[in-house]
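ARCHIVE RECORD
Type: protein–small molecule complex
Small molecule: adenosine-5'-triphosphate
Source of inputs: curated submission
Record status: active
Notes field left blank by submitter.
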Amino acid sequence: MGTLAIIGLLVFQGFFLIRSWDLKEEEFHHNVSKILHTVAEKIASHNKTELPKSKLIQRQSTNYYSVNVNSAIDANILEDYLVREFTEASMTIEFEYAVYDCANDEYLYSNYCNLSEQKDTEEISTSHPKFDDLIYYFVVKFPSKSSFLVNDFKVPLLFSLLTILSMLSFMYAIWVILRQQQMTDLQKDFINNMTHEFKTPISSIKLASDYLIKDSKVENDTRLAKYADIIKQQNIRLNNQVEKVLNIARLEKDQFKLNLEAIYLQSFLNKIVEQEQIKYEEQSGRISVDLCDKPIYVMADKLHFTNVISNILDNALKYCKEKAMVNVSLVSKNGKVILYIEDNGIGIAKEDQKKIFNKFYRISTGNVHNVKGFGLGLFYVKNICDAHGWLISIDSKSGAGTKVKLELPIVKNPII
Ligand code: ATP
Ligand code: MG
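STRUCTURE (tokenized, with ligand):
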């Protein structure tokens, strides 16, 4: 569409330029004819003769005119008239004129006049064509007609040049964007394929480590048991990371479809909190819950909803100060339930709050605190909330903890 629009604009611009040039030519011809007519009239009145009825002024070529006056012409008077008329009409152009002498059948006198004051001297044409159908006439030639018109044409030319330049830079920008898009797609495909390839070895390691842990020799040797546990834990971690990348890949490929079902919110949250509590306790943290008594049901995709809550709880633990103290609470209001997840962590500065939902965005202090991550967690959370039609917002201050607010519609009569 952009390219078509540009081509259209360029064609229009070209057409406009050609049309303007034609108009300038016409205007030039009109002005010159008018001036030459006045000069012819003055010569006729000086000679006290009549001007011929036809073929008075003839345009012999684009810059060559003949003027038929029907009486002898005094070259000095002619030059005086020509200079005066051209100056009066503000046509500061160079011209040559020549007076034809019918007695000798040759040009009697020719001269060059420069009204433009740009050049001092100019070679006069040695020969002028003769016109058999005329007797007393003089000719006027404009050798620098094109440059005179171009001079007048500077502004449209400059604008056209600017338009062409901006079009070219626009086209270059489009080309760069398309190339980068191609590179990004390639990169995305590569990462997705690569992470996908990790899945098979990860599940093999999981199977093997499960057997290893249950082996009697390992069970009896605390050192081996510890190593086997490390393999298992790190494998789970690796699997989670790979899942995270693959989840994003699924989101972007439009392959993902929500499997909505009615979920009993309180029991659902309690289950996730129970699982996450183990991680928190390892780091002397705690998750407390404050869920209202009245059973609340919401429509959600269980798997994605679980990932959303885990991601938020995971962040609360990752970005804590010393001991992570997190509170999960529910408030139901006007057919909606508001889920708050509030932590006592490092908080998020105002300017970062708008960006944390962007893909790959990580606040630099995240690195200072030596916390690793892809910057994909909240991007995923936001996408899932949008897909469900939920509102998510963050209330936080740098150094003063973070409160994530999630607004979900309540299902009145759930079919379970
Ligand atoms: P990933 O979740 O992909 O492993 P991540 O945690 O860095 O990596 P996000 O979950 O998208 O990525 O979070 C983006 C950034 O927002 C984080 O790097 C962190 O700086 C900031 N952030 C998110 N949650 C909190 C929080 N509860 N407290 C303070 N900062 C947070
Ligand atoms: Mg995260």
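CURATOR ANNOTATION: The chain has three domains: 2-152, 155-252, 260-409.
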